[in-house]
Amino acid sequence: MADNSIQALVLKRLASGLVTLLIVSLLVFVGTEILPGDVAQAVLGQQATPEAVQAIRDQLGLERPAAVRYLEWLADFALGDLGTSLVSGREISEMIGQRLSNTFFLAAVAAVIAIPLSVGLGLLAALYEGRPTDKGISILTLIFVSLPDFLLGYILLLLGAVVLGWFPALSKLSDSMTFWQQLNAVALPCLTLALVTSSHTMRLTRAAVLSVMHQPYVEMAALKGASRKRIILRHALPNALSPILNIVMLTLAFLVVGVVVVEAVFNYAGMGRLMIDAVSKRDMPLVQACGLIFASVYVLLNLTADILSLLTNPRRRRPK
Amino acid sequence: MIKRRDFLKSSAATAGLIGLSAALPARAAANKGGHLVIGTTGGSAGDTLDPTKLTSVGHGVMGYTLGNCLTEIEEGGELVGELAESWESSEDAVTWKFELRKGVTFHNGQAMTSADVIHSINLHRGEDSTSGAKGLLSNIADIAADGDHAIVVTMNAGNADVPYLMADYHLLIVPAGTENFAAGIFTGPYMLKEFVPGERLSATRNPNYWKSDRAHVESVDVLFVDDTTARISGLITGEIHIAGRVDPQSAALIDGAPGVHTENHPAAGHRPLLMACDRAPFDNLDLRLAVKYALDRPQILENVMAGFGSLGNDHPIPPSDPFHAADIPQRAYDPDKAAHHLKKSGFEGALELHTSNTTFSGAEAMAALFQQSAAAAGLKVDIKREPADGFWSNVWMQKPFVSGAWGGRPTADIMLTTAYSSEASWNDTMWRRADFDQKLALARAETNFDTRKAHYHDLQLMIHEDGGAGIPFFVNNVDGVRDEVKGFYPAGSFELSGMRVAERTWLES
């Protein structure tokens, strides 16, 4: 019975995820349609005579109704055909492949640092609520959350690459590098991302744990004589897990889709730079593909968070 | 971000005498070996090695790392033979014969012949061509082989600059029949090892390279680093040896840092205020002169470009060009004269100046300075900031008063033909004079240098006195270079030693 309801819930979530993706795809398409200028003007730039613009538009079929083009694009996308770039004529899947794996690598390394660090710090801060440890952690993370990511990136670049010379200023990966060399290459962007994201995660972890701490059953545990550490780890944490999982998943999503600026600072060849490139050239199929991939990552991670919180929190499985 | 339009407007170098000798200035003996890393701009994930698709400086650097043209622009704008050993023209400069260098092989071992050269040039010609060099070659009537080691180029009309056209970075010589350029087969100093579009090109020295005094390092990486700060950080940390296109604000910082310096050299690009001469209010010469006298050129050069440039004199031929008319007096900021011409023009009200930093990053600052200096002459200017999107389609050549930007052109003729002849599609001042067109055609076909220079002098004077462009300055090319890099010298109007740094520089051990 319980299994059935989990399955039903998961299916429901999956369906709503699909609907979300569909809406996002429509928004991405409409968004790229209403951008001023088109690929013909962007490619031709200063040479955009009306005839040349028309020639490119005809060649690319830009004159057909938007609805038709949207449905075609969506159908192809669903079948795994991302189309070809308007600017270079290359397969988009081929252009995206390496960039996407670079982005995932950066996100994964940053997550491995950021998530244990920030959840741990959040628990530590909750454990010592109101004490110097808590205040110290709070102030430090507040500083990092207040700094814009590009500034933090430049500061780390100045320290780590220019002054100390420990890490490269330009993060470039190649297949011939060993894993350690790759780690070294992405050290600075990873650190930047880890510091920027861990503040959010740490503060939200702390808040989630503390909000549970004010529940009657926690008071009961304290009256039983349990230590604060035991209360947090055994009583509060399991109940705070579902908001924390949500935060962690959002952080992961941010690490994949929110790294545009950091990629630019360290000249990292990831999805963010690819998308900026595509927008500035009005290479719409590429923009749409990037947009939908980003959206899918978000939806999938949110779905995972939902499902995990259902699994960890039996109460959420019961309809109210 | 790629500024394709910036780039398309530029081409090879400043004009000079057609030199038939390949004599080069004496230089210290080059150190051999090492790995050179060049950080450049204008890369994108859609890049290819197809010569017809090269659009940015970074693409040009890649091209010259792998390939050669028929001719090459050397220091001081001197033209020397590259894959062409020598050339000669008929009296009227209509028919040109290029003798090709013998014994040159492509990276795949195949010998280069006239068939390869003809194929390579024809890639850029014809109705369907989308090459950036299509316009340059539009007046070629025919190209034919004269045996295995010579070609004959026939023009529609006399053109003394044909050998200069052949130095354009698009006109790299590839084996006949090449359609897929992924293998990167050329005749140049380095051979393709790996190409990741928008990221980097890696190449190793061509052991059979036909130039004995070039290609000093063992391997080269051309990195695309479009973010200026990242490019300069890489230069300072030593990950990049040569960083192209340093902005004026960063140049002073580089000169102050240890182990690095800037290479700062005059170039031909300029940033005019464009007045449309065919309509009100600028169909009135006095109003045009009022604007020209109201430009405080030294102030603009100092504040907008941090002094990295040279003063302009309201015509597009820079002081570094051999045909530059040095005797035309420099027009200075003169509020009294501006006020005088303004009064004489009878214009009342405010001029609306349409501007956008998409033309160049200081365009809006320059407009603001002009607004101030014009106010002192009683000329009221309203600045209208336009969105970057569609600026070149909806504002440039549409509104009567706009900020513009021109990159350098390889020769005076190409500059004047592209922007000032009556029929030019980029005549962005709408200035049309039959006597100018006639003299321009005369100058183009003239093979005597002194006579030609006299013609160009008159053409510059016409634009200076009557034209619709207020040209306050010419830009400089500024590159960041590490001190261990030797052999860097400016050549032509492009940065990075005319984009040929890969084969010209070496690393001191």
pLDDT averaged residue by residue of chain A: 82
The gyration radius over C-alpha positions of chain B equals 23 Å
Name the CATH superfamily classification of the domain at 96-282 in chain A. MetI-like
What structural class should be given to the helix and strand makeup of chain A?
mainly alpha
The total of beta strands of chain A comes to 0
List the secondary-structure elements of chain A in sequence, H or E.
HHHHHHHHHHHHHH
Shape of chain A: globular
How would you explain this protein's 3D organization?
The complex is a heterodimer of chains A (320) and B (509). By secondary structure, chain A is an all-alpha fold. Chain A has a domain at 96-282: MetI-like fold. In chain A, 77% of the residues lie in helices and 0% in strands. Chain A contains 14 helices and no strands. Chain A starts with a helix and ends in an 8-residue tail after the last helix. The model of chain A has no long low-confidence stretch (mean pLDDT 82). Chain B is of the alpha+beta class. In chain B, the strands form six sheets. In chain B, strands 1, 8, 9, 10, 11, 12, 14 and 19 form an eight-stranded mixed sheet that branches. A four-stranded antiparallel sheet of chain B has the order 4-5-7-6, with helices on one face. In chain B, strands 17-13-18 form a three-stranded antiparallel sheet, covered by helices on one side. In chain B, helix 13 runs antiparallel to helix 14. The radius of gyration of chain B is 23 Å and the shape is globular. The A-B interface holds A 35-37, 41, 43, 45-49, 53, 85, 87-90, 95, 98-99, 154, 157, 161-162, 165, 168-170, 172, 174, 264-267, 269, 273-274, 276-278, 280-281, 283, 286 and B 1-2, 4-5, 8-9, 39, 44-48, 194, 196-200, 223, 225-227, 229-231, 233-234, 236-237, 239-240, 387, 389-390, 392-393, 396, 425-426.
